[in-house]
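Dear colleague,

Thank you for sharing your sequence with our group. We've completed the structure prediction you requested, and as agreed, I am returning the results in plain text so they can be pasted directly into your records. Please verify that the sequence below matches your submission; if there's any discrepancy, let me know and we will rerun it promptly.
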Amino acid sequence: MDAIIEALAKAAGLDKALAAFPDDVKAAAAQALNNAHGVQVPTDPAAEPWPPMRAGTGL
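Please find the predicted structure tokens below.
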């Protein structure tokens, strides 16, 4: 397994998963890396991807 993926898994608290299911952790990391291009980073840090939720509006 790639040392960076292993370090990231440990930093995320996935020590038990890494020990018990290393192939699954590797597959999940590969899937995440292959889909990273689909994530749109907002240009305005204050912008929300959807309107804030408010109770009672639009009902």
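Summary note from our side: The helical segments are 3-11, 15-20, 22-34.

Kind regards,
the structure core
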